[in-house]
């Protein structure tokens, strides 16, 4: 398995052309944001990068179906002619399928058609999420097609990319020949000069998909138990109505809806703490983004971001047996110097991690693009 390369490693990949196939809209969820950010940075280092994904079409898209458990997101059938034309024009050295939906599943076919290697990214442990939503029967019915799709991709890929080590057994079981543990990049705006680190906890923000796995109930409970603190929630999802109702009841809660990256950065900059109390979280990109803005973050022990020791200086851990409200009380007891130091350490750790992630991606792309196809 590959970890981040040492600082200062330079990878010359200027002649490579790479295509990413994704079923996620550019900023709709963590996966969509991940590859939008990554592609922006890779453009400076590769000959060409293309992310082929659904195009935003408002609330309804023809030839689409709602995502299981979240009707606010949809799986869209790709335009095959557009996909073929785009890939043939790019003439990539490597194709990377980053989701197990209709776009990602084209990866093996197009890689074979163009005679290039295929790599798969495995960002979401769907079996774990299904356990939060459904009983045994519905869970089996929902997981079966996803398992088939992921197995199809993993068995046909030179390697499978994951965001934390706990996902490796899952992809090995799906038939992956190799596995790389990859870091997470940052959008360029988050790397701009941050505001000063906070010296006390006064405004707490949560940003992400408003869904069961994010443990929204814990955030709303903290809103109720800490009336002297201000809370801001940003995002959209199936629990939006619950959040809106809570905002109407509690004057210390502001719901700001779905946020683009600039708006998210502003909300984070105005906060003194970001919380991510998720039941399941493959990595936790918004926590890294808050760290880049010199904000301390309180993140569930279940989040994959804890798998990276180099990020620990800026992270506060929400233990499995601890409520979010209790953890907030613990942090409020820290000195102003401790809170400010955590914010400063967050920025340094996130920036170093970002640059190491980009170096790692360049090394992995170069290595697998040069491999002959089986």
Describe this structure in words.
The chain is α/β, with parallel strands linked by helices and 374 residues long. The chain is 40% helix and 16% strand. The chain contains twelve helices and 14 strands. The chain has helices at residues 30-42, 80-90, 106-114, 126-133, 136-155, 168-173, 216-225, 240-249, 261-270, 285-292, 324-332, 336-369; strands at 17-21, 48-52, 64-67, 70-76, 94-97, 118-121, 160-162, 179-181, 203-207, 230-234, 253-255, 273-276, 297-300, 315-318. The strands form three sheets. A six-stranded parallel beta sheet has the order 2-1-5-6-7-8, sandwiched between helices. The radius of gyration is 21 Å and the shape is globular. The chain starts with 16 loop residues before the first strand and ends in a 5-residue tail after the last helix.
Which labels suit this protein?
12 helices, 374 residues, alpha/beta, 6-stranded parallel sheet, single chain
The percent range for helix content is 25-40%
Distance, first to last CA: 21 Å
User: What's the story with the biggest beta sheet?
Assistant: 6 strands, parallel
Counting copies of identical and different chains, the oligomeric state is single chain
Sum up the overall morphology in one term: globular
Total beta-strand segments: 14
What share of residues are in beta strands? 15-25%
Order of helices and strands: EHEEEHEHEHHEHEEHEHEHEHEEHH
Q: If strands are numbered along the chain, what order do they take across the biggest sheet?
A: 2-1-5-6-7-8
Q: Taking all residues together, what is the mean pLDDT?
A: 87
Q: Can you count the helices?
A: 12
Give Rg in angstroms.
21 Å
The residue ranges in which pLDDT falls below 50 over 5 or more consecutive positions are 7-11, 58-66
Classify the secondary structure makeup into a structural class.
alpha/beta
């Amino acid at each position: 398995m590959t970890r981040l390369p040492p600082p200062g490693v330079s990878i010359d990949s200027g002649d490579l052309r790479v295509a990413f196939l994704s079923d996620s809209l550019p900023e709709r969820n963590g996966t969509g944001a991940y590859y939008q950010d990554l592609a922006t940075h890779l453009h400076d280092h590769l000959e060409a990068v293309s992310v082929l994904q659904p195009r935003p079409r408002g609330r309804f898209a023809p030839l689409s179906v709602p995502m299981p458990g979240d009707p606010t997101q949809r799986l869209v059938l790709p335009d095959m002619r557009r996909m073929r034309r785009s890939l043939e024009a790019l003439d990539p050295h490597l194709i990377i399928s980053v989701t197990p939906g209709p776009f990602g599943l084209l990866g093996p076919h197009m890689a074979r058609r163009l005679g290039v290697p295929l790599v798969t990214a495995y960002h979401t442990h769907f079996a774990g999420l299904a356990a939060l939503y459904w009983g045994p029967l519905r869970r089996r019915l929902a997981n079966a097609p996803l398992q088939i799709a992921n197995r199809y991709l993993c068995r046909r890929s030179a390697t499978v990319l994951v965001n934390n080590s706990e996902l490796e057994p899952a992809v090995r079981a799906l038939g992956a020949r190799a596995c790389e543990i990859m870091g997470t990049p940052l959008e360029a705006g988050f790397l701009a000069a941050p505001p000063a680190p906070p010296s006390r906890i006064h405004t707490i923000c949560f940003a992400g998909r408003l869904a069961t796995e994010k443990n929204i109930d814990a955030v709303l409970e903290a809103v109720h138990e800490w009336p002297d603190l201000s809370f801001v929630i940003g995002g959209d999802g199936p629990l939006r109505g619950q959040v809106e109702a809570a905002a109407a009841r509690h004057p210390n809660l502001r719901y700001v809806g779905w946020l683009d990256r600039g708006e998210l950065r502003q909300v984070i900059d105005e906060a003194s703490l970001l919380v991510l109390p998720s039941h399941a979280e493959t990595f936790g990109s918004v926590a890294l983004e808050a760290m880049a803005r010199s904000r301390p973050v309180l993140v569930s022990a279940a989040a994959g971001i804890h798998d990276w020791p180099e990020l620990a200086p800026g992270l506060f851990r929400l233990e499995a047996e601890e409520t979010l409200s209790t953890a907030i009380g613990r942090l409020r007891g820290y000195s102003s110097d401790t809170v400010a130091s955590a914010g400063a350490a967050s920025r340094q750790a996130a920036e170093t991690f970002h640059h190491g992630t980009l170096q790692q991606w360049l090394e992995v792309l170069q290595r697998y693009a040069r491999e002959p196809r089986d």
